[in-house]
Structure formats: C-alpha cells, structure tokens
Design goal:
The complex is a heterodimer.
Chain A (H helix, E strand, L loop, with lengths): L2 E5 L2 E5 L4 E8 L4 E8 L5 E7 L5 E3 L5 E5 L4 E6 L8 E9 L7 E2 L3 E6 L1
Parallel strand pairs in A: 2-11
Antiparallel strand pairs in A: 1-3, 3-8, 4-5, 4-9, 6-7, 7-8, 9-10, 9-11
Chain B lengths: L3 E4 L2 E4 L5 E7 L5 E7 L5 E7 L6 E2 L7 E3 L5 E6 L8 E8 L9 E2 L3 E5 L1
Parallel strand pairs in B: 2-11
Antiparallel strand pairs in B: 1-3, 3-8, 4-5, 4-9, 5-6, 7-8, 9-10, 9-11
Classes of the chains: A mainly beta, B mainly beta.
Amino acid sequence: AQSVTQLGSHVSVSEGALVLLRCNYSSSVPPYLFWYVQYPNQGLQLLLKYTTGATLVKGINGFEAEFKKSETSFHLTKPSAHMSDAAEYFCAVSGMDSSYKLIFGSGTRLLVRP
Amino acid sequence: NAGVTQTPKFRVLKTGQSMTLLCAQDMNHEYMYWYRQDPGMGLRLIHYSVGEGTTAKGEVPDGYNVSRLKKQNFLLGLESAAPSQTSVYFCASSAGGPPQYEQYFGPGTRLTVT
C-alpha cells in the first residue's frame, strides 16, 4: 500500500525567500514520486518526477526535489520565491506495479508575500 | 492541439438528478482517468480506462459510471446525484500507465449538488 503525507496545508513565504514544501511517503515497493502544481481555476501540471537514478531532480520554474530513501521524503524546494509561484502543490506516489494509480497528498497552498 | 478538455465547466444539480461529464483528449492517449478533488483530501481516483472499450474502478467508484466508446472520449455519469458528490472533477490522460508516463489534466468541472 502507498500513501503520501504533506506537512502543512498552508505555507507562507516572502518574495525572494526560500520555498520548502514537505512530502513524506509510504510505499511497499520502490516508489516513483511526483510534484504537481495547480494554479487557481486550472488543472494540475507536472513540476518534476523521480523515477530512478539521480536523487536530486530538477523541474520547471526553478523547482527541485531530493529523494531521500532513509527519510522516506521528497521535499520540494526553490531558492527564491516569486509572486507567480503562489499556487497549490501536490505530492504524489506511484509504485512499480500495475495499479495504474497515482496516490496524491492533500496538498499545500503556497502564499507569497510581497 | 487543445490537450484535455472538459464539458461543462460548472454545473448545479438537485439531489436525484442525473448528468454526464465529458472529457476529450486530442493526444491519442491510451489511458484516461477521472478524479475528484475535495478540500484537504487531494485528488482521488474514481475510474480509469486503459484503452478504448475498457474501464476499471479506482478508489472511490460508488455512485459513478463511466464509458470509453471512443479512444478520445471518457464519459463520467452520475445516475442519481447526492450532496456528497459536490466536488471538482478532473479528467486526465496519459500515453501509458503511471509511473512512466505523465498524466495531463483538464481544467476541471465544478459540480454542486443541492
């Protein structure tokens, strides 16, 4: 069974500050991990994904995430927040099985203060 | 190339009424999915399809039916709407199953059942 926990339903940062959105997962099989972003009144868009190989994954818009197996974490970071980063962010996990499922976390809304 | 489109964008139903949500994709994707999004709960998979003429149940299938008569379309039906089905519904498609293939999301349908 797989699950995702996102710590903090809301995160507020100042423009130019570090963004850190936390994601912990549980998986009985080697996980594939994803971060999606949802801008207001829009569908979800893939930011980045970890499959195998390099544990530091770079995505669009300057975001990156690091897979840490020992901590079962996949936290999303960006060195300097921009006003346009304000959105809801979802972490998701899938396994190397045939379930065809993405399991989503409950989401974290990022607020960027001017 | 419109990607994934959903019809309608908004709908208000009375308890007991029926309706069909239409999802269309122009990317020739084999896999299609219906999710519902509720506050604080992320996205949950309702039904999915791995090809034309096939459907399968996801996490929360009760009260919904689906059909995939054409490869490009995936219909979600509510036979007798209930207030618990008030939600935002997202359709997605992918060239293959997760985790290898990215899911592309539509803009969503906001449904209110009174």
